[in-house]
Design brief:
2 domains, four-stranded mixed beta sheet, 2,3-Dihydroxybiphenyl 1,2-Dioxygenase, domain 1, single chain
């Protein structure tokens, strides 16, 4: 009997209703996504540490899963370390100023982080955080 290799997370996938809008949002968070990716049905980016983030259009997903449909409610949540409490506030201001929906305004959380939550164009929650003096 051969020992089984333990699965490891390698990719987080997002289904985008509007690929260009979704990629523009994540570019504002610092991801290096080429401009010509806006018209592709599938896009991937390698993140530090080797994890990958990918986007598929709804048409791409239904091409291999005809029964797929978008369901309401939170499906995933991504968290971005903004480096400093001020970075959280600035990132929040940039994203909401660009018209993205803010969910929870920046606040000093009891667990020692400055924290805020915005929604990406597909309604996924995106957490913005940084350690505060209390969390260090």
């Amino acid at each position: 009997m051969t020992a089984r290799t333990a699965p490891r997370i390698d990719l987080i996938g997002i289904v985008a209703a509007d690929m260009a809008a979704s990629l523009a949002f994540y570019r504002r968070l610092g991801l290096d996504l080429p401009a010509d990716a806006d018209t592709r049905p599938h896009v991937e980016v390698a993140l530090p540490g080797g994890l990958r983030l990918a986007w598929d259009t709804e048409a791409t997903v239904t091409s291999f899963d005809p029964g797929w449909s978008r369901t309401p409610g939170a499906r995933i949540s991504l968290a971005f370390d903004c480096g400093t409490p001020q970075g959280v506030d600035e990132t929040w201001a940039e994203l909401t100023g660009a018209g993205h929906t803010g969910h929870l305004k920046p606040w000093d959380a009891f667990w020692g982080q400055r924290y805020a939550v915005v929604h990406d164009p597909d309604g996924n929650t995106v957490d913005l955080f940084a350690a505060t003096d209390r969390g260090q």
